[in-house]
Amino acid sequence: MAGELVVGFVARSLALISDAGHMLTDSASIVFALAAMSLAVRPARGIFTFGFKRAEILSAQLNGATLVALGVFFLIEAIRRLVSPAEVEGGLVLVTALVGIVVNVGATWLLSKADRSSLNVEGAFQHILNDLYAFIATAISGLIVVLTGFVRADAIATLIVATLMLKAGYGLMRDTARIFLQAAPSGLVPAEIGARLATQPDVSEVHDLHIWELTSGYSTLSAHVFVHPRGDVSSVRRSLQKLLADSYGIMHTTLQVDQASRIATGDVGCVDIAHCADPHGPHFLSPHD
């Protein structure tokens, strides 16, 4: 990174300088990822009843934010260079970028073997992968400058780098925002799950259904279930937990299962008047009642 920054100023290459800035965030992203992993494995205690698992999501969001901020900065600078191009030493740019490609291929390969289901690890991987793309674009721009003298190629390469940074950063911020807002995990449809739970034997009603991710890959569900007056509460709870684990991969469930005093019908609306007056989530009636 330091070498690239020095060469970038000497060669007057915005593409190399933007790459160096990106590499700075690469280093920071790996530091953040390692620190977040260390926090995430700490046991729950005191007021932190969930532990520090969301430290990984904070790290991923920070990585996304830095990518977006740097992407915007270099996008503006690239547009300025397109309007007022500066002389660029294409040979220095080409050699430095080729060295960078070799280094980043190795780094990308190492991180590709990690568990990228974690948004934290994915954030670090996206930084390194985008830096590899950036070096390729920079090498091409250096070659064009050497062969043709077209110095605006440097600014065009910077535009490509900035666009890649914005794309990766936006994706990370979108995915982490989904978790912070406690939206249902991607691929899980609460309405579909709730309706299916309500169709199970002896289930009269399902309400207050909530599905969210504590951290990436850690799906959680809670719901209030009313069982038919003649049904077995314990048996229904076990069957619903098995259904959620087998069909949807949701292993962390909290089900409040109560015996219904009467059967819910479409006319009545629900078996618990208190919950009808103060709903806390989606409401599903059994189609069999």
UniProtKB/TrEMBL annotation:
MF terms (GO), sorted A to Z: zinc ion transmembrane transporter activity
GO cellular component, one term: plasma membrane
One Pfam entry name: ZT_dimer
Residue ranges of every copy of the Cation efflux protein transmembrane domain listed in the record: 1-180
Topology in membrane: Multi-pass membrane protein
Localization annotation: Membrane
InterPro entries to which the protein is assigned, alphabetical: Cation_efflux, Cation_efflux_CTD, Cation_efflux_CTD_sf, Cation_efflux_TM, Cation_efflux_TMD_sf, CDF/SLC30A
Family: Belongs to the cation diffusion facilitator (CDF) transporter (TC 2.A.4) family. SLC30A subfamily.
Main location (coarse class): membrane
Keywords: Ion transport, Membrane, Transmembrane, Transmembrane helix, Transport
Protein name: Putative cation transporter
Domain Cation efflux protein cytoplasmic residues, every copy: 191-259
Origin: domain of life: Bacteria
Membrane-spanning ranges: 20-41, 62-79, 91-111, 132-150, 156-173
